[in-house]
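Side project, low priority. Logging it here so it doesn't get lost.
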Amino acid sequence: MRWFRRAGTKATTKAATEALSTEPTEHISLVLNVVYHQLQPERKYHILDLGSAYGSNVDFFSQFPCKIHIEDLYQTLSSFDFLSPEDGFSYDVVYDYLLPYGRNTNFDLIFAWDLFNYMKEDEILHLVLYLGKFCRSGTLLFSLISTAKHIPESPTRFKILDQEHLQYEVSSPVLRPCPCYEQNDLTRLMPHFTVCNSFLLRNGFKEYLFRYDN
């Protein structure tokens, strides 16, 4: 099994493909602004970033005492050809291998970005259950869920510009169908997480801020 394999993914028409620009674009992020105003300069934070590594993102959080763990999970799983659930391994074994955090690790903030748009329901469920082992009551998770019928074939790269602006970098003009997860889907797939903020943006995304309560 190849995680996130593209076999069977239908390309869109040439016109639709050409309409998707790969030029970086700047967008407001209402959830990022909410998160920023909850951070306290005197407290140390543990942050998990499941997207692409950007120095600017690290620099942004360096204004607070924090330890940042970065794992481009899509990139890792898309080239992952062993220890898959289809080969008899549990999701826990796979995620434990790829995200080997100590038992005493407790994340305060998790950036899932648009990763869930590229995962099947069971992959999301088991990832969230696994991450729950490293959450405390009050852990926040930021996710962007696409409301469009089609999305780029791989996740968008998000660069933090300031406390309320993100730069979106689309890696490919090729499109794939979007699962279009609704809030009730996410609630079902994310045990112990509740929505504390959600904002429908004009750029085809809905931002969610989830809070972990156990």
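Brief comment: The radius of gyration is 17 Å.
Revisit when time allows.
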